[in-house]
Amino acid sequence: MTKIKDIKTTIYKWTGPIVSPAQNFCTNPTDLLREKGDKMKSFRFHEWLVCEVIADDGTVGIGNAALAPQVTKKAIDCYLKDLVIEEDPFDYEYLWEKMYRNTMAWGRKGIGMIGISAIDLGIWDLMGKIKKKPVFKLIGNRTKEKIPVYASKLYSQPINELQKEAGTYLKEGFKMFKMRFGWGPKDGPEGVKKNINLVNAVREVIGYDKELMLEAYMGWNLEYAKSIIPQLIKFKPKWLEEPVIPDDIAGYSELNALGSIPIAGGEHEFSFYGFKHLLELKAVSFIQYDANRVGGITAAQKINILAEKYNVPVVPHAGQMHNYHLTMANSNCPFSEYFPVSQVEIGNELFYYLFEGEPKPKNGFIDLNDNLPGFGITISDKFKSNFDVIS
Q1: Pick from 194, 259, 201: which is nearest to 230 by CA?
Q2: Percent of the residues in the chain that have a pLDDT greater than 90, as a whole number
Q3: Cα(104)–Cα(92) distance, integer angstroms
Q4: 270-287: burial string, b at 16+ Cβ within 10 Å, e else
Q5: Which of 10, 236, 260, 382 is the 20 to 30 Å CA partner of 71?
Q6: Cα 137–141–143 angle (5° rounding)?
Q7: CA-to-CA distance for 275 and 281, rounded, in angstroms?
Q8: 184: domain range?
Q9: CA-CA-CA-CA dihedral for 153, 124, 247, 112, to nearest 10
Q10: Domain's final residue, options 103, 132, 161
Q11: Which listed residue (46, 268, 277, 317) is catalytic?
Q12: Is the per-residue pLDDT at 10 higher than 80?
């Protein structure tokens, strides 16, 4: 019987070039505060945690976490790793519950759940390597020939630059796009006009035969969202994402009940129980968990089953291989998000610099290799000189 011998956590801190932050780059929760300067600072992550689950036969499963790596590493090293060492990785359900229930006092959401996610992902990658199968074949096999993906960038910027960027993705064959807003409640009617101009600019490029998603990234409040939604309807968006902060579930429910624009969310929700609450209150029309935040593959699969009962599709946040495997293996996950490869800016881009094996989209689709075990990724040496490594 295979046993987990050790858990090793390593932080990779990006020291290479970074795109300077622009004003009104993207709305976010700090917009309602009086602080000035780079309001996106708290939402940029230029470090990444790699969590290696090492078996007694030398096989290594790779998990990861992007949010608050320094603190997440402490949570794993001090509280979580000893709960799984000497255990059978194929007892994944028991191990998940063991980590969850032993950290109940402080770990149900946020850092604790991110740490559990990193270990759980490592366990699933390890199981795939031991079985010599991709993770998607362990959890449901191939439900689609290939995965449709949407180009997810289009942050707020001058109109001509925004349209140029949208045109680039259109030429690359994407049929779905997501853009961000730059202004919120504090910016008044003038900010509303600027937001509307952004959406109009993208629609002028991609037309109305392509899907367009809109994201507020938690930067609005209920009153503002209700006031701007009527002006957005004419652009026929597929969804409005995270219009209010994630704890305002009543606000989500009220906006979704309007029926004007489907509401999407869940990137900042944690665990099966958080999504159970959202679904029971009909707060979202699309679920967007991220497997390296929500509790890993083990928790994500439970959410997928629950969401299907409510007829709510699941579109995981961020591309990244752990999310692609979930999309491939579940018929209720119709497509995936894809962050175009670019210079390091917000931080999602680091996945491409840190790992090898991410599939490249062709005409708006990606595919997974049936013959690569686990998640099919390895740690890359290509950009090693641009990282400080903290063990």
Answers
A1: 259
A2: 93
A3: 18
A4: bbbebbeebbeeebbbbb
A5: 382
A6: 150
A7: 10
A8: 138-380
A9: -120
A10: 132
A11: 317
A12: yes
pTM of the prediction?
A: 0.97
Are the beta carbons of 287 and 307 closer than 8 angstroms? yes
Residue 21 has pLDDT above 80, yes or no: no
Shared domain check, 205 and 107: no
d(CA 113, CA 195): 34
**Percent of the chain topping pLDDT 70:** 100
In a domain, 387, yes or no: no
pLDDT tens per residue, range 355-368: 999 999 999 999 99
pLDDT band at 211; cut points 50, 70, 90: very high
Cβ neighbours for 247, distance < 8 A, ≥ 6 positions apart: none
Active site residue 317: yes
Domain annotation covers residue 144: yes
Tell me the per-residue pLDDT of 127-147, one tens digit each, with 9 for 90 and over: 999 999 999 999 999 999 999
Q: What CATH number should be reported for the domain holding residue 10?
A: 3.30.390.10
| Total number of domains constituting the chain | 2
CA 20 to chain centre: 22
CB 247 within 8 A of CB 222: no
- Asked if residue 35 has pLDDT above 90, the reply is no
Task: Please say which residue of 132, 162, 192 terminates a domain.
Answer: 132
- The reply to whether 194 falls in a domain is yes
Please tell me the predicted confidence (pLDDT) of residue 124: 99
245 and 316 within one domain: yes
